[in-house]
Specification:
By secondary structure, the chain is mostly beta strands. The chain is built from two helices and 20 strands.
């Protein structure tokens, strides 16, 4: 038990160090591979992107691999959504039980679609834009392999490694990164289940396009997960707070109510401190081993919205 507490203490120190480093070097908008910060799974999205402390969640492979530890059986998750400006995202994740934990793999693919190519003729005051030069495509991709294991009755640890590729037409860049996380169960009055979790994400190499190098969106996140049972129903509360290298402190909060383990209603809020945030909502339907989750997310700044759907199959 002592060695697990030492590991947990080390992870907390790592989170604090990441926070201090992010605060010291933060320059909003300069991180590369920002798609890595996008919440995975319509369930988490509908609850404002919260979920770092949720145990037994296959989507943890993308933001806290400790969530893999307590998954029962094998789960396949698939997500596809179409956003504004023809942006399309695909997500796939799968786990396999091994000894006292779960091995997981995950894939993220973001396709921005065709974009107009432009150029410039002349120089200085005589420079003129040139249009009609055709189009080009761009995409982001990440492949992750992680393992979450139960260290004791109350403590889960997790770690993953990921390979990241970004492409703009024929120009490509590659980076490597890792995530570390923990989830600790606790006792909270009135609630039947309670846990807190933390994770340090995207610790890795810089990504280089031609001569320009940029850091990955390294950050940390801490949160709580609370559950209260009402006969056959269940009410969940989630709250996360974190910081990334390229952003200020952000808060993610969500609630979820399950009716007889069949229908779930969800709502959430995602915001940066000192800036307005976006509300989100969604629902989940479960029938036997199959689940379907839906999330609606308005983008107030862009006056647009996104609809996300996730399919889960347990076997």
């Amino acid at each position: 038990m002592n060695r697990y507490r030492i590991c947990l203490g080390f992870l907390i120190v790592l989170c604090l160090a990441s926070c201090v480093s992010a605060a010291a070097r933060s320059r909003t908008g300069v991180s590369a591979a920002v798609f890595l910060t996008d919440p995975a799974g319509a369930r988490s999205v509908a609850m404002g992107g919260a979920g770092v402390a949720v145990p037994g969640d296959i989507s943890g492979i993308f933001f806290n691999p400790a969530g893999l530890a307590s998954i029962d059986g094998t789960v396949l998750m698939a997500e596809y959504d179409i956003r504004f400006a023809d942006i399309r995202k695909s997500t796939l994740a799968l786990n396999r039980r091994i000894k006292n934990g779960n091995l997981g793999v995950g894939f993220n693919h973001l396709q921005t679609g065709s974009q107009d190519r432009t150029g410039v003729t002349g120089a200085g005051a005589t420079a003129q834009p040139v249009v009609g030069l055709g189009t080009f495509d761009a995409y982001d991709f990440a492949a992750s392999v992680g393992y979450g294991w139960r260290c004791s009755r109350n403590i889960n640890f997790g770690a993953n490694v990921k390979w990241i590729r970004q492409s703009i037409e024929s120009i490509q860049a590659t980076a490597y990164a890792a995530d570390l996380g923990a989830i600790h169960s606790m006792n909270v009055p009135w609630f039947d289940i309670a846990a807190w979790g933390l994770a340090v994400t995207n610790i890795g190499t810089q990504i280089k396009f031609m001569k320009e190098k940029e850091d990955l969106p390294r950050g940390f996140k801490a949160g709580i997960f609370l559950t209260k049972y009402f006969s056959q129903d269940r009410f969940n509360i989630l709250l996360d707070i974190g910081r990334r290298k390229d952003a200020n402190i952000h808060v993610n909060a969500g609630v979820e109510y399950w009716f007889h383990r069949t229908l779930a209603l969800r709502a959430g809020y995602n915001a940066l401190i000192e800036k307005s945030g976006d509300l989100a909502a969604g629902l989940g339907i479960r029938y036997g081993k199959i689940s379907l989750d839906y999330a609606f997310v308005p983008f107030t700044i862009l006056d647009d919205q996104a609809h996300r759907m996730t399919f889960l199959f347990r076997f």
